[in-house]
TrEMBL record:
Pfam families: C1-set, MHC_I. SUPFAM superfamilies: Immunoglobulin, MHC antigen-recognition domain. One of its GO terms (cellular component) is extracellular space. Keywords: Glycoprotein, Immunoglobulin domain, Membrane, Signal, Transmembrane, Transmembrane helix. InterPro entries: Ig-like_dom (IPR007110), Ig-like_dom_sf (IPR036179), Ig-like_fold (IPR013783), Ig/MHC_CS (IPR003006), Ig_C1-set (IPR003597), MHC_class-I_related (IPR050208), MHC_I-like_Ag-recog (IPR011161), MHC_I-like_Ag-recog_sf (IPR037055). Coiled coil: none annotated. Residues 1-18 form the signal peptide. One of its GO terms (biological process) is immune response. This is Major histocompatibility complex class I-related gene protein-like isoform X1. The chain crosses the membrane at residues 300-324. The gene is MR1. Belongs to the MHC class I family. Residues 199-291 form the Ig-like domain.
Amino acid sequence: MIRMTVLGILCWVHAAAAGTHSLQYFAVGTTEETGIPKYVEVDMVDGMQYMYYDSTMEKPTFRMDWINKTMGPDFWERRIQYIELGHNMVKSSLSKTVQHFNHTGVHIYQSMGGCELDADGTRRTYASHAYDGKDFVSLDLETMTWIAALPQAVYYKRMREADTHSQQVVKHYFEHDCFKSLKMYIQNWSEILQMKVRPEVMLIPRKARKSPGTDVICHVTGFYPREVEVNWVRDGEHLLDEGVWSGEVLPNGDRTYQLRKILTVSPEDQKKHSYSCQVDHASLDEKMDVKWVPGAALNMGFVAGGVLAALGLIIAVIIGVHIWKKRASGARSPDYTPAQR
């Protein structure tokens, strides 16, 4: 039985460093009807979704209006060729892997990859696959060899390396077309990529689960770009690490991001100290400092421009991150064990 839900359909997001631009694709195929299309692909530039396609559509949809209005038939033909290539690859890989493991029921096959371009011209590329939420194979683009993440994936490595035509198509995409597309998107979407949206900060207290104290959630949302620094501060000067749990930076459905940091405070410390959540972001002239008032149901530090957006497909991408990268808990099939790292 598959251990991923619809919220885990896609699997990995890479956070580009400042001065770095990235183009990424995420694709997933399913064996049976699950309430979502059997194939879904999402493409992103600098962490923002710009293209969506699924197996119920004739052609992809772009969130960049200039693409829909100005790009000629050559662009669309090339774009559709890559989508068909990805669709066929995921469909074939899923079918062969299910047969190889002699599995039945619902299973998924995930594919991700992309390229990064630094300000100094340095280039990087990457490509990985997963089966049922576990690392399966990755591609060494320098040697064009596939690396099996577990012994049961060796068959797939050999199958892909034997398909010389597909290998050349993949090589050309990662060495040329990926960077060509990235540069085009950066040039024409610069106004969006360079925007700065200010965050909203909310402090939400709740009873601690494993102690008699209080968990205080610092929920920072609605900000862009992605890079943000959030810290809990005691008595206005001491940055806290102990007793603080930090979540991942997750995208909202409106191209902005959110982050949570949870501080656990004992009843004794609540009486002796003051606590505040401090936020530093490129959109702010100075750091935000939102003080927690014990006994208050909700403390808010609001800066116009940030909203808590409805979660959509992009959230599915991120939740899949935790399932692929951190591994979902639960029973594992005896014939399929993740490789040791």
